[in-house]
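Researcher: Sequence recovery benchmark, item below. Answer with residues only.
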């Protein structure tokens, strides 16, 4: 049977830094992303595609705040579902178009995915997940005073609003996703880290105000679906030590033990590379199978072992 890979695409695959977050720009960027995913399919992979939604949820939060006196705001879990739906639509449409151009007959389905979290997760008391646009420090502090939102500096790129980010524990729709994959359907799932939900004392599922980290949720989906490989596509070709410093050093293949050592030494930024490394460690440790981090433009070369950073047991 063909290898199954969970492929987590980053925010730059949907919105480029500095460009307006219009639907037109998003379709344009996703079309480019789809061409790289199609390369994987041509190489014989079965794939589950996951994606971020931090900027999109953040933009909806801003829109709701502006219109709150006219239309009541929706809770964050509903916004997560909304962005899963429209981003899944965009990804499945553009990928289908690319596959049709290449005469590849494949079905694609988007599964609006709920991810179980613990209602007592400490993440609810310490918001860390960046959402929405970047602001200057001055703008961020002004909004904090006006609205009571929490902002933090994000890996040297500016200031962003942060919201709770609990640890993902289970995937409600995992059997549905598995059935689709076993029928050779390309699946878009776990968008934006999934919709965070809790299961209460009565066994009822209820949404909560949070955004789950996309890479952690993607690693969970990869484990639950017994994937052969977990791949994170981001804005850099490889993971680096001393990133953006004169003595930065690229990493080719590292063990889990080495990854943990570098992580503990503080080499990976909390708002960007750290959760990716943590997600890869989680997948590799649980499955004894490899994880890969690379730029989507280098994906084909990385799959052939020519570039990227591979994390192994």
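Model:
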């Amino acid at each position: 049977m063909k290898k199954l890979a969970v492929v987590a695409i980053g925010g730059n695959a949907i919105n480029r830094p500095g460009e307006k977050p219009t639907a037109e720009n998003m379709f344009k960027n996703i079309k480019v992303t789809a061409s790289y995913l199609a390369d994987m399919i041509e190489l014989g992979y079965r794939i589950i595609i996951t994606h971020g939604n931090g900027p999109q949820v953040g933009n909806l939060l801003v829109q709701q705040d502006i219109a709150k006196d006219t239309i009541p705001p929706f809770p964050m879990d509903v916004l997560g579902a909304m962005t899963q739906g429209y981003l899944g639509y965009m990804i499945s449409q553009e990928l289908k178009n690319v596959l049709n151009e290449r005469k590849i007959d494949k079905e694609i389905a988007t599964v609006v995915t709920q991810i179980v979290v613990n209602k007592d997760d400490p993440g609810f008391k310490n918001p860390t997940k960046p959402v929405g646009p970047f602001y200057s420090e001055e703008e961020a502090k002004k909004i904090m005073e006006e609205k009571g939102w929490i902002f933090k500096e994000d890996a040297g790129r500016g200031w962003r609003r942060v919201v709770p980010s609990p640890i993902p524990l289970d995937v409600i729709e995992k059997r549905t996703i598995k059935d689709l994959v076993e029928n050779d359907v390309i699946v878009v799932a776990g968008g934006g880290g999934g919709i965070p939900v809790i299961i209460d004392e009565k066994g009822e599922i209820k949404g909560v105000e949070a955004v789950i980290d996309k890479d952690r949720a993607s690693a969970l989906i990869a484990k639950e679906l017994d994937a052969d490989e977990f791949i994170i596509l981001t804005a850099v070709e490889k993971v680096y030590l001393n990133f953006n410093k004169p003595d930065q050093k690229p990493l080719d293949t590292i063990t889990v033990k080495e990854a943990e050592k570098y992580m503990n030494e503080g080499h990976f930024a909390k708002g960007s590379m750290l959760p990716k490394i943590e997600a890869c460690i989680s997948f590799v440790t649980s499955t004894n199978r490899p994880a890969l981090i690379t730029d989507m433009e280098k994906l084909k070369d990385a799959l052939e072992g020519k570039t990227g950073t591979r994390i192994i047991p």
